[in-house]
Write a structure and sequence with these properties.
It contains 13 helices and six strands. The chain is mostly helical. Helix 5 packs parallel to helix 7. The structure holds beta-D-glucopyranose. Beta-D-glucopyranose (BGC) binds next to helix 2.
């Protein structure tokens, strides 16, 4: 059995491009890009395991990507301020080529969560590495914060790149955490916006005592674990968080891994490694490692003989009839998925730190 902790670090480093970008998955054509969301979690994981140079190279890549698009950011803010709809050319994309260019084929690009997560991960990079920021970060932080402060109320694709006409709780939480983080390390204070977003979430994105997938829904989505860790929209032991996690356990988990949401049909809607790790991360944070360890063990069993973790495993599928059409369209489930490895490392570290 390979040491999945070491192997995960190797896989991530081996798949970091000289530019600093992390490829989402090297063996799955649609994922041969760097996502700001995946990359930010990857950088955080690398900081946790002491690979600060890797994290710094990613942050530097992301900062350049944004800086080269300052005009786009300014245009987005202006058009939005006039109440006009944003075109594809007026927004920051959710993924870029490893060289930092826009992908040629279209994608569900208008997603805000990744940029919030990036601002949060930058703060964690500074905290964990003890390094000061590179020059190019400083300007970019303000740019991204302006972009998010202007656009956070806009419906956009969620972190699964779906439901573009909704206002997603996870997205709001990521934006809120990013603005909160950069208020302590950037040039500007965003405390008022952070409070407004938090109030918005609690006024509109809660039903039956738990957070909901999006405004108007009464379902949960496993990404809501993010409201606990790492975004801390409420304290980890808050009743809303407790009830949300409880619903996730009931609706999205049988006995192994965690599904994304009840109606998910992507590759049949299987059990996601990164979400299973995320649930364990929450349990480790609230001081219940006995609930996190079985999740870690379950993940370790899903790695192949070379220690590659997939995106999801086709167990307890939500809808089996969708598995084959997706395999025919895009090939087998992505493996390795770097974000799965990142979240595994995050869980591993959280458990090490929660030790007796
Ligand atoms: C997922 C996204 C992820 C992307 C790359 C998509 O299928 O829905 O959350 O960022 O893959 O890993």
């Amino acid at each position: 059995m390979t040491d999945l902790y070491q192997r995960s670090i190797e896989i991530i480093l081996a798949n970091q491009h000289p530019s600093g970008a992390y490829i989402a998955s090297p063996n799955f054509a649609p994922y041969r890009y760097c996502w700001i969301r995946d990359g930010s979690f990857l950088a955080y994981a690398m900081d946790l395991v002491g690979e600060h140079s890797s994290a710094a190279r990613y942050h530097s890549w992301a900062a350049k990507v944004v800086n080269q698009r300052e005009e786009v950011v300014r245009r987005a803010i202006e058009i939005n301020g006039l109440g006009k709809p944003l075109a594809e050319s007026d927004i920051l994309h959710t993924r870029y080529t490893l060289e930092g260019k826009e992908a040629e084929e279209g994608w569900h690009n208008f997603q805000l969560d990744g940029y919030g997560t990036w601002l949060w991960a930058l703060g964690e990079h500074r905290r964990l590495s003890g390094r000061s920021f590179f020059k190019e970060y400083v300007h970019t932080i303000d740019l991204v914060a302006d972009y998010l402060s202007a656009l956070w109320r806009s419906p956009c694709y969620d972190c699964w790149e779906e439901f573009p006409d909704k206002i997603h709780t996870y997205t709001l939480a990521a934006v809120c955490a990013g603005l909160h983080a950069c208020s302590s390390y950037g040039n500007m204070d965003h405390t008022d916006t952070v409070q407004t977003i938090r109030d918005f979430i609690h006024a509109h994105n809660v039903a039956e005592g738990h957070y909901v997938k999006y405004m108007g829904s009464d379902e949960v989505d496993a990404s809501l674990i993010g409201l606990s860790v790492p975004y801390r929209v409420a304290t980890v032991s808050d009743a809303l968080i407790y009830k949300t996690v409880d619903r996730i356990e009931t609706d999205l988990r049988q006995n192994g891994g965690v599904h994304r949401y009840p109606g998910d049909t992507y590759y049949g809607g299987g059990e996601w490694i990164l979400l299973t790790a995320w649930l364990g991360w929450h349990y480790a944070e609230i001081g219940e490692p006995e609930r996190a360890v079985p999740l870690l063990k379950w993940i370790e069993k899903q790695a192949d003989e070379n220690g590659n973790l997939p995106e999801q495993v086709p167990n307890n599928l939500n809808n089996r009839s969708y598995l084959e059409p997706w395999c025919n369209r895009w090939g087998n489930i992505a493996q390795p998925l770097l974000w799965s490895h990142a979240n595994y490392l995050i869980l591993h570290t959280a458990l090490d730190q929660s030790g007796p």
